[in-house]
Design goal:
Strand order of the largest sheet of chain A: 1-2
Order of helices and strands of chain B: HHHHHHHHHHHHHHHH
Distance between the termini of chain B: 45 Å
Strand content of chain A: under 5%
Low-confidence stretches of chain A: none
Strand content of chain B: under 5%
Number of strands of chain B: 0
Structural class of chain A: mainly alpha
Shape of chain A: globular
Largest sheet of chain A: 2 strands, antiparallel
Largest sheet of chain B: none
Helix content of chain A: over 70%
Oligomer: heterodimer
Radius of gyration of chain A: 19 Å
Largest interface: A-B, 55 and 54 residues
């Protein structure tokens, strides 16, 4: 029972983490909150669906279940391109206007949701889990389903890749430099516009992968992103912005707290408890768990 | 003239609104449903004024005013429901397994108590949240996210407590305070309700206008444009913020109560995050930082939606509202009011200067919203 709950908590945590990663990094870098982030999850989920359709038409029977492997990079690329476009057209005009960025991207989110409804209809579509994800490992009387294990595995991969990009690559160095002091970074010859665009696009791409994961858990419709996005926003508040560590710990707190509360009370009370924890937590650390220190006040 | 432009515009709106029932009476408008809809728009205009106070003037973006709107609406709806059942328990409570009226609803069994608690409950919720959030200087998007999560949590609670709130269906089939407003036979009731609502709208406008034209309003703007500087000047910013938050919650609750009278039902969909952000959209499109902008925005957007969002146009409407909102935020920070006050005079000035080949570089002296504070120097 306890281990089962722990396992469910881990799988919720991993999805929230994927959803919030891009949000937290772009907020740290550009002070932009993307309300349309949930729609990138939706884009990822629908991409998975489309890839599945294409595979069922074009690919011979024995390779059918490989569609899911193919859909992960596809979802990343599609969401990446959407993100890059969104950054170019809208976000780049909103630098330093945190609250306005939130509102403008809500307009985008309305448009994207309607776009999904126009293309795929208002009814949800179902993604069939590939054969190799059916079933699960049974240890004692506990069953760990393969698709949740797979989600957790893919999240770990994403985190490792993201960690490498942020802390070990040249691009990551530029990114952190821009995050800490934009003007100075520009003076050192970093093309901050390019860094912004790439970072935003990568964040969106990761949301696309998250969308790929949630398509395994239920039917996909135009509001599929909305159910995770509130959690993702709270992770940003809880974890502080612009660093991996904060997001991971924040997502763990929110994910496990809500699953455990749900297990011992009910789903609704769990939401209230999570919110209560976040508010309580902000009493101690209004800026979140980990803050990139600067000397600025305003 | 220019100084009183806002009040004159509001007077014009009030006169037009006052004429609406008369037009119906003499057959210029067909169908009472349009008038009922305009009544709902008045409720929307009231909540928009509240949001303008907190967002347009104080710079705090709340994505949760749908909650306070719904709290007021549920209170009023329950009173009206209890009137129709003579204070007995309602059908949905019976189905939900309740034997007698739950305590929370016994507070709403007569009108004075209803009016009191309809305002008190949202005010207390807003105070608790506002006090703890603002005290620690949690600001900007952090507050927006918390307020959003608050609405989200309350929404699921309202759905889950279905013996008390009738879950997804909400409280339906209720008459207004003055009796039924549907159909031609009940036209007198509807007119009564309409004019009472109009008076409430005028009162809320006057109170808001009074507040922002005093020193209090100046401090709110100071908080918006430079919060730390306002702290350093010796003002207790968090108290001001909490006060405005509570005030706007109360205004939203009043609006909700009026809305439910016209609408005849209240569902939890009024308290979703989307519904709350739509309210912000009205203010943004109308013109933030001006009370009249909020009123105009609420009417313009809702009337457009009423006329456009039927049948096949629903799809297009979503695209229109999304892009209009996005463009407003990106390019027209002042909304419609800003367009009339700033952009068009600026265009005319430019046109004139081009004509005379004599460039006027001076910008029109209108106070701009300083939303760019800090520029790129963050973090």
């Amino acid at each position: 029972m306890f281990i089962n709950t722990l396992f469910n908590g881990m799988s919720l945590t991993s999805i929230i983490l994927l959803a919030s990663l891009g949000l937290s990094i772009t907020f740290g870098l550009m002070r932009v909150i993307n309300m349309a982030h949930g729609e990138f999850l939706m884009i990822g989920a629908y991409t998975t669906y489309v890839v599945q359709m294409v595979f069922s038409k074009l690919v011979p029977e024995q390779f059918q279940s490989w569609y899911y492997i193919a859909s992960i990079p596809t979802a990343f690329v599609v969401a990446f391109l959407f993100g890059s476009l969104l950054e170019k057209v809208v976000i780049s005009r909103l630098y330093g206007r945190e609250i306005d960025s939130l509102l403008a991207t809500f307009g985008i989110s309305l448009i994207l949701q309607q776009l999904a409804r126009s293309i795929f209809g208002t009814q949800g579509v179902n993604v069939k889990a590939p054969d190799f994800l059916f079933g699960g490992i049974t240890i004692g009387n506990l069953t760990f389903s393969y698709n949740r294990l797979f989600i957790i595995f893919s999240v770990v991969m994403c985190i490792v890749i993201m960690w490498y990009i942020m802390y070990r690559s040249g691009f990551g160095k530029q990114m952190r430099a821009v995050m800490q002091n934009r003007n100075m970074a520009q003076c050192m010859g970093i093309n901050s516009r390019r860094v912004d665009n790439l970072t935003f696009a990568i964040g969106s791409g990761i949301a696309g992968i998250a969308g790929c994961s949630i398509s395994l858990l239920g039917s996909v419709d135009s509001t599929v992103g909305q159910s995770y996005i509130v959690y993702a926003f709270m992770v940003v508040v809880l974890g502080g912005v612009g660093n991996l560590k904060g997001s991971v710990i924040g997502a763990c707190i929110i994910g496990f707290a809500s699953i455990f509360a749900e297990n011992y009370t009910s789903a609704t009370i769990a939401k209230a408890i999570v919110l209560f924890i976040v508010i309580l937590f902000l009493q101690k650390r209004p800026q979140g768990l980990f803050v990139v220190r600067t000397r600025e006040l305003d | 003239m220019k100084k009183h432009g806002e009040n004159i515009s509001f007077a014009v709106i009030v006169i037009i609104l006052a004429l609406v029932p008369l037009l119906l009476q003499f057959g210029a408008i067909s169908g009472g449903s349009t008038v009922i809809f305009i009544g709902k728009c008045m409720a929307y205009a009231i909540v928009a004024i509240g949001i303008d106070l907190i967002w347009g003037y104080t710079g705090i973006l709340s994505l949760g005013h749908g909650l306070y709107f719904a709290l007021g609406a549920y209170g009023m709806a329950m009173y009206l429901k209890l009137v129709s059942t003579n204070g007995q328990i309602t059908d949905f409570m019976h189905i939900g397994g309740l034997k007698e009226l739950p305590f929370i609803w016994t507070l709403f069994d007569n009108l004075p108590m209803t009016l009191l608690f309809m305002i008190l409950i949202p005010a207390v919720v807003a105070f608790i949240i506002g006090y703890f959030i603002f005290k620690n200087r949690v600001k900007g998007v952090y507050f927006s996210i918390i307020s959003q999560a608050l609405t989200w949590a309350f929404y699921s609670v309202f759905i889950a407590l279905s013996p008390y709130t009738n879950g997804n269906v909400g409280i339906t089939e209720i008459k207004s305070l003055f009796g039924s407003v549907k159909g031609d036979a009940n036209r007198a009731n509807m007119f009564m309700l309409f004019y009472v609502s109009l008076i409430v709208l005028i009162l809320v406008y006057v109170v808001a206008k009074f507040l922002v034209s005093r020193k209090f309003g100046k401090i709110l703007v100071a908080i918006r444009d430079g919060e730390n500087r306002t702290y350093f000047s010796g003002y207790k910013v968090s108290m001001y913020k909490t006060f405005v938050y509570v005030l706007s919650a109360i205004i939203a609750a009043i609006a909700g109560a009026i809305f439910v009278n016209f609408n005849g039902s209240i569902t939890p969909s009024e308290m979703t995050i989307e519904a709350s952000i739509m309210m912000v959209i009205w203010v943004a499109v109308g013109g933030r930082g001006t009370i009249i902008g909020a009123v105009i925005g609420a009417f313009v957007i809702n009337l457009c939606e009423y006329n456009l969002s039927s049948g096949n146009l629903v799809e297009i409407w979503q695209y229109i509202i999304g892009s209009v909102f996005c463009l407003t935020i990106l390019f027209f920070k002042g909304g419609l009011v800003g367009l009339v006050r700033e952009q068009i005079p600026a265009l005319i000035a430019k046109f004139k200067s081009n004509n005379t080949k004599n460039k006027i570089t001076k910008k029109p002296t209108v106070t701009k919203l300083n939303t760019k504070k800090g520029g790129l120097n963050h973090g």
